[in-house]
Amino acid sequence: MCKKKMNMINIAWLRRDLRLTDNTALQHALKNGNKTAVLFIFDTNILDELDKDDARVTFIHQQLTKIDRQLREMNSGLLVKTGDPFKIWQELISGFEISEVHFNRDYEPYATKRDEQVQQLLQKNNISAFAHKDQVIFEPHEVLKADGTPYTVFTPYKNKWLEHFNPQQIKIEEKLKKNAFAAIESSVPTLEDIGFQKSDIEVEDYDLSVVKNYRKTRNFPAVHGTSNLSVHLRFGTVSIRQIVQQVYQQSPDFLSELVWREFFMQILFHFPRVVNENFRTKYNGIQWRNNEKEFERWCKGETGYPIVDAGMRELNKTGYMHNRVRMITASFLCKHLLIDWRWGEAWFAKKLLDFELSSNNGNWQWAAGTGCDAAPYFRVFNPTEQVKKFDNEMLYIKKWVPEFQDLSYPAPMVDHKMARNRALETYKKGIAE
C-alpha cells in the first residue's frame, strides 16, 4: 500500500458555489484528514466573451475577496488562477501533491464537457475526483416519469418534485474545522489583473421578508415584492437548501419558482439542443422579420410603449428586470416585432446579473411559444393592458421613463392590433403541418 505523503492535499474547486458554509464539495474535501486548499479559476473561455466592465465579474471578485478573508482567519487563503481550466489543472498537478479533488456539479453543456475533461486528466494522474450535488434539491436524473424519460411539462414535473421532497432530509452544514485548511501563499488578483474593471452596477442582497406576501406582490414592478434571490442562487453565494428550508412552508408560490428553476435545468441537461434550437421543432418554419433597427430600439427602451421601455432601461442600468416585465418585453420582441427569440435571449444573457442559461433560454422560448410547456403562440401580451393591471399608477414607468408624457417621447413603433394579427398569421403559416 502506498504510503501517504506528508504534504498531500485535497482541493475543493469552487465555480458557481461562492461560499464556504453548506458547500457540499468543500464539506467532502474536509473529511479525510488531508489539508484542503480552496480553488477558483477565472475561466478565460467564459471571460473572453464578456465586456470588460461586466457587473457579474465584479460581483464574483467581491465574493472571492470575502472568501479569501474568511480563509485567512483559518490560516489559509483562496487559491485563484486565471486561464483555461484544463491547462490550469495541468499546472496544479505539477505543483501540488493532490490526493482528492471535489467540486459541485454543473449541468450546462459547456460545464459538463469541461468537467469531464478535467476528471479524465485527474484520473490519469491517479488523483481521485468527486462531483457532488449542490446547486439543486433534485438533479436532472432524480425527477423522471415512470418510464424513465424526462418531463417536458412543468405541472407534472412539479408534482413529482413535491412528491420526492422531504424537508426532514435537508441538512445544512455550517461548521468548518479551522485547522483543516492548507496554508496557501496566494492572493486574489485585482480585477485589472484579469483584464476587467469595476462595474458601476451593485448587486443587492436578497430579502426573504417578501416571501410571506409573495403571491400578492410578485406581479407589481413598482412594489418591493420580489426577493432578489436569483443572482445569489446563480453564483451560489447562498445554498439552495438553506433557502428552501426557510421558504417552503411560507409560500407555495415562491417554492414553485424554485421548482421552475430546476425544471429548466433538467430540460437543458436532457435536451442541450435548445441552446440554439426551438424545443418544438414544428416552429422552425416561422419567418422572423429580424429588423435590426427595430431590435436596437427595443434594446435601448425606445419602442414608444412605456412598460416595455421601462423594463429595458431598468435592465440596461441595473442588470435586473422584474419578472412580470421580462415576460412583457420578451413577448413584445417576439410577437409585436417578430424578432427571433434568440436575439432577445442573447441581449438578456449579456445584461442580466442573474443570467442562468437554462432559465433564460426556457423563459424566452416560453414567451416565443417555441419551448416546452410554452405560452400558446396566439397569446400576445397587450402592453397597454399590462400597465392597467400591474402598474396602474405608473409608478414603475415614471421611475424609468420619466418623459413618457412629453412630446419628446416616441409614438408606439408598431400598432398593437396590427402587430398581433401579423404575429398570428406568421405563426400559423410557420407551424403549418
Automatic annotation (TrEMBL):
Keyword Mitochondrion: no
Requisite cofactors: (6R)-5,10-methylene-5,6,7,8-tetrahydrofolate; FAD
Domain Photolyase/cryptochrome alpha/beta positions: 8-137
Pfam families: DNA_photolyase, FAD_binding_7
The entry's keywords: Chromophore, FAD, Flavoprotein
Family listed: Belongs to the DNA photolyase family.
Name of the protein in its database record: Deoxyribodipyrimidine photolyase
Biological source species: Draconibacterium orientale
